[in-house]
Specification:
This protein starts with 8 loop residues before the first helix and ends in a 6-residue tail after the last strand. Helices cover 14% and strands 42% of the residues. The protein has a six-stranded antiparallel beta sheet. By secondary structure, it is mainly beta. The protein contains one helix and six strands; from the N terminus they run H-E-E-E-E-E-E.
Length: 90
């Protein structure tokens, strides 16, 4: 996908840590919406876009990484707080 913008590696590290720890996250998206879910994994698809997979109750959802503005763990003992992932697009 030609409009995909890779996120900085240090931001990707926070997503991986969230997956390893299974954190519950509040996720802010570039369109202004928010969602919550448990971090599951990241994926790279054939078109080279990268995705973040979360579990919401009984359903898994994939969110494109460059559409995520920020993640905030809900876990009290999380190893990080709110992390900015991508900037909002005009």
């Amino acid at each position: 996908m030609s409009d995909y913008k890779m996120i900085p590696c240090e931001h990707y590290d926070y997503l991986e840590l969230a997956c390893l720890r299974g954190y519950q996250l509040k996720i802010e998206l570039i369109d202004g919406t928010q969602c919550q879910g448990q971090a599951i994994t990241t994926q790279t698809r054939a078109d080279k876009t990268e995705w973040f997979v979360i579990q919401q109750q009984y359903t898994k959802h994939a969110l494109r990484l460059d559409h995520i503005v920020a993640i905030t763990p809900a876990d009290a003992n999380a190893e990080f707080s709110r992390v900015l992932i991508a900037t909002k697009q005009d």
